[in-house]
Structures are given as structure tokens and as C-alpha cells.
């Protein structure tokens, strides 16, 4: 099985599965062109635990929990659970925060950018171009000797902390389910309208999350890595899975009647092209400097990578900042301070890239 998932056909199959179930999750209740969006779903979790009070995006997304727990299960089953940490955690946290801010200016992570395109949203083309440019800047730093330093083997308990925290969120979700017409249940906040109020059945979402977590951990599926490997090494192995995701989601959207081509009127999207592009330039650069897309960071956190967990925490805190300080976009356009946040984020990333080089 390990050999299969590391093969070209294996990662294509993983991409097909993700694309298929992402479209089905939308059909079963998740927001439009958002069957799976790691950034958006982490943003919803931040709202559900009260880190921001944007009432339309508050829900503990079981898919995120499933990604981490599924990756942990796969790693233990394959004897691939490797607790490690200590590779520039503060930098990773900052990169996670700015990655989320860039993604919320665009309104989606790389996974959602592909799913938006598969649903006919042509604004996603501009976002994907920005993603490629951001990762391209990151590859420039790689060639110049950029490095966050090596992680080190650590206690098993360190590697288990993120899976345990995700399990804790799942317990909260069962202990405090949403009551009809109520925006708060116990300690959790729930959206009554907007994207946060749109979700597939809990157990369905959790099950698909677990499946994707298992498959992605074994195949090393990564959207950022797909672009990076193409630019740096002319390798298309990871890109094969990326393209398979797009194809599967496109076909399923046609079958399910979820395809609507155009720029205007797309679900949870805006048409300010420059900031769709620049938001993803920032996000792509952050993902490149941190060594993985937001999905890959969750899978690595599940297999014991404490540094990836720090990046995930950074994204969740970044979501809170984005909504508390008017940085996140909405279907009406970029937030009042989103443009400034993009420029600040790019300046911080360039500072990190230029100063953390072995040749510096």
C-alpha cells in the first residue's frame, strides 16, 4: 500500500478521491465551491471557540478534525509516526498567521481555489496565478539557501498534542450541539446564517475527513509542493494529484448541477482581481517558506510534526485577527484593512526569506 500511494497512479487516485468527495460535501450541505477549504474551515473553528465574533463563519468543521486524526491513524499503522519539533517555531507561527490573512483576502486556500475553478468561478484563475507567483518567489529563496533549520526528534507526547486537541474539539461538538435558532450552545458559537450555517452532516464530514487524512498522509499530497516541485525540479508527481483533484471535482460538479461559469455571482467570492491575485501571492509565499500547503500542514501535524502544529495554530490565530481587524474579504470585496495587511505580510515574508539563508 505504501508503494502504491507513493506512485504516480497512487497520488492521482488520492486527488480523484478528494475532488469527488469535496463536490459531494458541497452537495450534502457545505457552502458553494467550498466542499473542502482548509483556511475557511480553520477560520470557522476560530469563530466557533470565540476567537472572533463574525457570526456568519462560526462552526467546528469535522473535516479538519478528521484530517489530523486520519493522518495520525495512517502514520501509526505504517509506523511512520515521528514526533519532531524545534525548527523556527516563532517564524512558522507568523507565516501561518499571514498565510491565513492572504487566503482570506482571496477567500480560499489552494484547495478551494481549485474547487472554485472546478465549479466555474473564473476569479479562481487569478487566485491560482497569484499562488504560483508566491510559490515562485519562495523557490527563489530556496535557491539562495533559505532554510528554517532542522527539526529534532522529541517526546511522543509532543507529537500527540495536536491530535488530542482535535479530539477535544470533537468532544465539544458532541457535548454542545447546536440548538435550533440558538447562536451559542454551552461554550461554542454557531452561525445561524451565511457559510458557517452551511454544513454536511457531522458524521459524514468526519468520515470523509478521516479518509482524506489517511490517504493524504500516505501519498504526501500537497498543493504547494506540486507547484514548487514543478518550478524547482521539473517534477510533476505531486502535480498529478493536484490536476486529478480539479478533474474529479469538475466532472462531479457537472453531474450534480453545481457548475456555473463566470466571474459574477459566485458563492463566497469577490471580483476584485488585483486583490484575489495579491492575497494568494502572500498565501503562496507563506506556504512555500513554511514547507507545505495548509492541508499538508494538518497531515504533518497528525503524523507528529510539532512545527506543522505551530503553523496551524498561526493560521487559526490569523483568522481571528483577520475578522477582528477588518482584514478578511467578503462577497462585497476586500476588507477595510485587507490591502494594508497584504503589504505588511509580504514585507515580513521577504524579511524572513532574505535573512534566513545559509549564504546570508
TrEMBL record:
<dbReference type="InterPro" id="IPR007272">
    <property type="entry name" value="Sulf_transp_TsuA/YedE"/>
</dbReference>
<feature type="transmembrane region" description="Helical">
    <location>
        <begin position="306"/>
        <end position="326"/>
    </location>
</feature>
<feature type="transmembrane region" description="Helical">
    <location>
        <begin position="338"/>
        <end position="356"/>
    </location>
</feature>
<dbReference type="Pfam" id="PF04143">
    <property type="entry name" value="Sulf_transp"/>
</dbReference>
<feature type="transmembrane region" description="Helical">
    <location>
        <begin position="275"/>
        <end position="294"/>
    </location>
</feature>
<dbReference type="InterPro" id="IPR026366">
    <property type="entry name" value="Seleno_YedE"/>
</dbReference>
<feature type="transmembrane region" description="Helical">
    <location>
        <begin position="154"/>
        <end position="176"/>
    </location>
</feature>
<feature type="transmembrane region" description="Helical">
    <location>
        <begin position="236"/>
        <end position="255"/>
    </location>
</feature>
<feature type="transmembrane region" description="Helical">
    <location>
        <begin position="59"/>
        <end position="78"/>
    </location>
</feature>
<keyword id="KW-1133">Transmembrane helix</keyword>
<feature type="transmembrane region" description="Helical">
    <location>
        <begin position="90"/>
        <end position="113"/>
    </location>
</feature>
<keyword id="KW-0472">Membrane</keyword>
<feature type="transmembrane region" description="Helical">
    <location>
        <begin position="196"/>
        <end position="216"/>
    </location>
</feature>
<keyword id="KW-0812">Transmembrane</keyword>
<feature type="transmembrane region" description="Helical">
    <location>
        <begin position="9"/>
        <end position="28"/>
    </location>
</feature>
<protein>
    <submittedName>
        <fullName>Membrane protein</fullName>
    </submittedName>
</protein>
<feature type="transmembrane region" description="Helical">
    <location>
        <begin position="125"/>
        <end position="142"/>
    </location>
</feature>
Amino acid at each position: 500500500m505504501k508503494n502504491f500511494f507513493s506512485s504516480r497512479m497512487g497520488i492521482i487516485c488520492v486527488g480523484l478521491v478528494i475532488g469527488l468527495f469535496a463536490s459531494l460535501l458541497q452537495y450534502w450541505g457545505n457552502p458553494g465551491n467550498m466542499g473542502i477549504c482548509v483556511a475557511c474551515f480553520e477560520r470557522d473553528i476560530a469563530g466557533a471557540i470565540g476567537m472572533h465574533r463574525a457570526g456568519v463563519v462560526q462552526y467546528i468543521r469535522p473535516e479538519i478534525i478528521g484530517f489530523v486524526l486520519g493522518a495520525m491513524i495512517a502514520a501509526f499503522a505504517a509506523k511512520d509516526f515521528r514526533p519532531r519539533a524545534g525548527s523556527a517555531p516563532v517564524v512558522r507561527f507568523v507565516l501561518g498567521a499571514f498565510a491565513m490573512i492572504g487566503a482570506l483576502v482571496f477567500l480560499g486556500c489552494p484547495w478551494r481555489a481549485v474547487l472554485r475553478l472546478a465549479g466555474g468561478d473564473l476569479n479562481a484563475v487569478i487566485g491560482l496565478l497569484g499562488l504560483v507567483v508566491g510559490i515562485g518567489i519562495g523557490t527563489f529563496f530556496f535557491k539562495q539557501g533559505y532554510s528554517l533549520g532542522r527539526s529534532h526528534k522529541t517526546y511522543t507526547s509532543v507529537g500527540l498534542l495536536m491530535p488530542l486537541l482535535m479530539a477535544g474539539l470533537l468532544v465539544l461538538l458532541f457535548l454542545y450541539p447546536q440548538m435550533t435558532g440558538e447562536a451559542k450552545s454551552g461554550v461554542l458559537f454557531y452561525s445561524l446564517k451565511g457559510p458557517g450555517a452551511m454544513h454536511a452532516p457531522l458524521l459524514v464530514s468526519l468520515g470523509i475527513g478521516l479518509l482524506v487524512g489517511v490517504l493524504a498522509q500516505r501519498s504526501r499530497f500537497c498543493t504547494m509542493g506540486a507547484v514548487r516541485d514543478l518550478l524547482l525540479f521539473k517534477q510533476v508527481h505531486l502535480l498529478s494529484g493536484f490536476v486529478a483533484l480539479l478533474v474529479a471535482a469538475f466532472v462531479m460538479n457537472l453531474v450534480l448541477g453545481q457548475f456555473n461559469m463566470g466571474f459574477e455571482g459566485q458563492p463566497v467570492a469577490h471580483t476584485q482581481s488585483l486583490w484575489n491575485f495579491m492575497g494568494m501571492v502572500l498565501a503562496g509565499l507563506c506556504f512555500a517558506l513554511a514547507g507545505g500547503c495548509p492541508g499538508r500542514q494538518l497531515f504533518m501535524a497528525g503524523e507528529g510534526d510539532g512545527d506543522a502544529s505551530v503553523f496551524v495554530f498561526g493560521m487559526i490565530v490569523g483568522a481571528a485577527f483577520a475578522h477582528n481587524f477588518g482584514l478578511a474579504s467578503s462577497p462585497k470585496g476586500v476588507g477595510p484593512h485587507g490591502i494594508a495587511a497584504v503589504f505588511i505580510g509580504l514585507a515580513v515574508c521577504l524579511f524572513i526569506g532574505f535573512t534566513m539563508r545559509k549564504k546570508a
